[in-house]
Amino acid sequence: MHKRNLTREKIILVSFCLADEIGINQLNFQKIAEKLDVKYPSLYNHFNNMDELKIEMTVYMLNEMNQKLMHRLIGKSGYDAIREYASVYKEFAFENKTAYKLFINIPSTKNNELFNLMRKITHIIHEILKSYIKDEILLVHKSRTLRSLLHGFISLYSFGYFQGDVDLEDTFKSMIDDFISSLNK
């Protein structure tokens, strides 16, 4: 690959692929440059350091997740929208394990674009829940509850805690149904 073909997006996509192979903590500019067949100093023309690259990788991933959420939520409302939101979130995390791990471990939300994307994900669930919850404080609590349930489920599954004969999807459905039931109290 020639330098003139090197873009931020190409670096980000190759970084995700490489991180899937070697782990996000092993990722560095030298390894990324080897994969891209460029000299590693040329990466500094696009990113100041690894922290900036990881933040931009997270921004890229959140944009992808938001697009998927918006696409799959079209025409859905109520309980169906809650179930779809939960399914998309889980599916995205399972399909993009490295990206999700990066998202959960990103050191800071001082990046405005990253902060706004994270708020957008929160806004989506707030909009869905507003038809059930009028109190703003309770809305925040229920939004946090749902996001915590999703993250906990994904994390426990990723660590290998969900073994045995009970179907994983049945467990997930039961968890979301319990959350939905809590909205009627």
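That was protein one. Protein two is written in the same sequence-then-structure order:
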Amino acid sequence: MKNARKIPWRRVFLEGAVIVVSILLAFAIDAWWSDRIDQRREREQLFSMLTEFRASLSGLDEVLASVQEHAKNVESLIALLKAAGDKPVMVPGSLLGSAITWRTSDVSTSTLDALMASGDLNLLSNVELRAKLAGFPAFLLDVTEDEIIAQNFAETEMSVFLARHGLAEIAYANRAGVTGPEGIQGLRVPSEISVLPSPQLIGLLTVRRVHFWYSEAGLPTVRSYLQMLIEQIENELMPGDSNR
């Protein structure tokens, strides 16, 4: 028993402490690295949405200006027809073109849609921004539904009526802002055409004017929402706000 080796407890405890510290340090480094990856991924997603929203904001301004122009044309056409009573009146082709024109906002939300579908939207650190992004699709739907209704009416009701009365060709040749079949804008038509006023035509044009009213009211609200999202995302991406 006198030859039994003495256990170096101090050394054992020291080595054990080194092992424990090494394991804890490895976990800390792994957690830190995972957090860095998550932060980088979040910034990439935010930047992607920012790029899409900026482009959509610029497009909305162009669409709204177009809608306002076509709305004025429809108003002018209604006034011209009412003033003519039951007699034929010469109508500029541009007014008839606006009667069958429709415009859609086409706001790009592909990155946001992907985040919501995957559940990754919940990983965004900014709770307020996350809530605003989550509510945007439903907010946008109110406007896009009106745009779809206006599009369907212009194509299936207004254009059919004009076709029955021999006015479709000049109308389509003067429809601006909507991509159509190749060559349709190059149709050789007169600058104006004789139109016989009727309660049905004025009624259809009034519906078109209502559609434009909805767009004139809805597009600015979408623009404001987009502007708010852009500002919040820009603030989130500012380097001075975090150590990302």
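The mean pLDDT is 85. Keep this in mind for the problem set.
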